[in-house]
Design a protein that fits this description.
The protein is an alpha/beta fold. It is built from 15 helices and five strands. Helix 6 runs antiparallel to helix 7 and helix 9 crosses helix 11.
Length: 353
């Protein structure tokens, strides 16, 4: 069923639209009618239609405001704008929002039915294409996972082999260039997301398949291959240089901020634009200890220095090294030194005497 919502403050227009839609056949169904944009948004929220037919000049929320909201929230929804002869400047604004079509009042039945049929046929083609993409996505998943693994483990020879196998499978499927482009783009997005999660790097894969509108299968594969090899190069650079430099930069940040109670794993990772998972793994490789252990060690050493001065109150020592809770500080201090802060101070004072 192709679902439609109509929006107009004139009852006769809505009645006329419903009559024409019903005459078009049982394929179409009017699932809601609204008198202004605000009512329409409520209907759309609960029952998003395939097609929205809206007037421009309406009270409370006009058609232009409605169209802007719909395009922001429901980008794929088809929209037909209807307006009078004196409202063409408004219609031009609507067209800039990429509405599907524009019809003048009074609406001619033949023109309306023709527009409705054209939109429905395109909707059906898109639905079939999407179903084909979903099936192809699953059939390619094993190859894609191997490509991801080859990039992350820096296996250049293995990556070339997996890319070639993927190319052969795409060509053997017999799909046209339009569907092939969508497959390549979808898979490239998936690959880049996975590699980004593992590496902390950021890729913009969709741009790799532009700007030409019409590609041969060979050209599509070349672009896909280039993008994958580009990710491999960045991972290699990251492994060889970036990892150590970034972690050292993070260590400098931690050393300068460990006395701040707001210091956290997230803020440390953000300071060098890394994901938390990536940061944790490589921080331990660089320092030999976890982030929390490293910060705790810094804080305990500083606490010892401060406790040796009798003028520093023990509670204030906790605050000055980043602990907002004294009991948390005392527990951590005893775990690391075998003594409570008071015992440590007394021992130090006794040894000085």
């Amino acid at each position: 069923m192709f679902n439609i919502i109509t929006v107009d403050d004139e009852k006769m227009i809505k009645r006329s639209l419903r009559a024409m839609i019903e005459r078009a056949g049982t394929t179409y169904s009017v699932i809601g009618e609204a008198t202004n944009g605000r009512e329409a948004l409520e209907l759309i929220h609960y029952h998003p239609p395939h097609l929205l037919i809206t007037d421009i000049c309406m009270p409370e929320m006009d058609g232009l405001e409605l169209i802007a909201e719909v395009k922001q929230r429901y980008q794929q929804m088809e929209i037909i704008v209807i307006s009078g002869y004196g409202e063409f400047s408004y219609a031009q604004q609507a067209l800039r929002h990429n509405v599907t079509d524009y019809l003048l009042k009074p609406i001619l039945p033949d023109e309306f039915l023709s527009t409705l049929q054209r939109i429905y046929e395109r909707h059906e083609r898109d639905a079939q294409r999407l179903a084909g993409r979903s099936q192809q996505m699953w059939s390619f998943l094993a190859h894609i996972e191997q490509i991801i693994q080859s990039i992350w483990t820096v296996q250049e020879k293995g990556l070339h082999e997996e890319l070639e196998q993927f190319r052969l499978k795409v060509e053997a499927s017999g799909m046209d260039a339009v569907l092939a482009k969508q497959i390549y783009v979808d898979q490239l997005v998936y690959i880049s997301q996975k590699v980004s999660e593992m590496s902390g790097l950021s890729f913009k894969p969709a741009s790799a398949m532009e700007p030409e509108q019409h590609h041969s299968l060979e050209k599509l594969y070349e672009k896909f291959q280039t993008a994958c090899l580009g990710m491999l190069t960045e991972v290699i650079q990251l492994r060889n240089l970036g990892q150590s430099l970034q972690i050292r930069k993070a260590i400098r940040y931690i050393n300068a901020n460990f006395q701040n109670s707001d210091l956290s794993l997230v803020s440390a990772a953000d300071s060098v634009s890394m994901s938390v998972t990536y940061f944790c793994r490589f921080f331990k490789e660089e320092t030999g200890m976890s982030f929390m252990k490293y910060v705790t060690r810094l804080r305990m050493e500083k606490a010892k220095q401060l406790l040796t001065n009798p003028e520093n109150r023990i509670n204030s020592v906790a605050e000055r090294i980043g602990y907002s809770d004294y009991h948390h500080f005392a527990k951590a201090f005893k775990k690391n030194t075998g003594m409570t802060p008071s015992e440590f101070r007394n021992t130090h004072v006794f040894m000085d005497i």
